[in-house]
């Protein structure tokens, strides 16, 4: 019920606004939030206490029937709300940077000068058309999805709006086919081979192995590939597994197969390199066909660093400009570099482009792996998705599991692909590098990097 206060000639009525005060994390407390008024309109006082009381009753009726509106003085600017919303969500380091970039680059500048409750459905439609018209399909989808989260939380969590301005309704007007995925060019193993040859020219044997590892394991590049350490590579794992329970289980399971362990990815956080769990916490074991295991054996025998893949200068890949210095020349080709002056050591022949990969990210090779596993038709879906770090939804995902027989079939099939479509087709393969000299004084290489591990609850 509203209550009326009289002070001198001033009459004020207070009523519950239907909201609760928020704590420092933006969550509602048990303390009610009250609104008040000194008259039916700004500058017009109540005639008497009875008028004030009935005015309060009307406002409480609006609250019960969800017709209430926040006072102008309480309305929150979009810029302030975006900052509040972002400060109260928990994200991983890379997601934190991505969210901040989208908010600061698109959402905050566009809605500058607006209040949260001042955005109407037509205003959102204008914003949507602006984003779709200016940015790529993928980027637009993520920006609009983030704005939807902002508006949903403004309604449900922060009570800054009565409803979202994003209206869900049946299609009207001009038909537009929904774009469900990026259109992919046909990509054959000859194109993968050309990319691997280009990588060998750019980067040496490490580049050759890098491309084939992505193509025949489906590992995510760059994070998981950068984060693959010697101790988790097939020449050492599972005997080198630090977790005793996992080590014993894996030694028994993979006694007759080679496998590597996707345990970490690596990236920069807090000003330095760190290890973190793979995307979506998709820890997994990947069985290796014999040809790829042999490549990893030769690669790791050629250096003594804890990382499986090193840069052109023998340092961790994390410090390199991978797209510009590695992937773009591999994908798009490059002119010949002559032995001149200080660039003598970087001389290399001309590199042909790979037309089927034009404009594509290296992730396209991971997608090729998925398609290749689908080709024979006898590899169960659960085994394919698990290899890519995905979980099947619903009951199928709950009751399915990857068996040893499924993994043996994957190894057999991938080895057949290599022998038939690469070796059998007469495609070029490079010689293996010279291993490091061995001797009594030779130090045992480090299996793990020793970097700090980011833990997320």
The CATH class designation of the largest domain is Mainly Alpha
Q: List unreliable stretches of 5+ residues.
A: none
Helix percent band: 40-55%
- Taken together, the total number of domains comes to 3
Secondary structure tally: strands: 7
What overall geometry do the principal axes of the alpha carbons give? elongated
Give the percentage of residues in beta strands.
5-15%
Count of helix runs: 15
Largest sheet entry: 3 strands, antiparallel
Could you tell me the CATH topology label of the largest domain: hpI Integrase, Chain A
CATH architecture of the largest domain: Orthogonal Bundle
Q: Would you mind describing this structure in some detail?
A:
This protein folds into 3 domains: 3-68, no CATH class; 78-156, DNA polymerase, domain 1; 189-423, hpI Integrase, Chain A (Orthogonal Bundle), CATH 1.10.443. A hairpin with a 2-residue loop joins strand 5 (265-269) and strand 6. It has a 3-stranded antiparallel beta sheet. A two-stranded antiparallel sheet has the order 4-7. Helices cover 41% and strands 11% of the residues. With 457 residues, it is an alpha+beta fold.
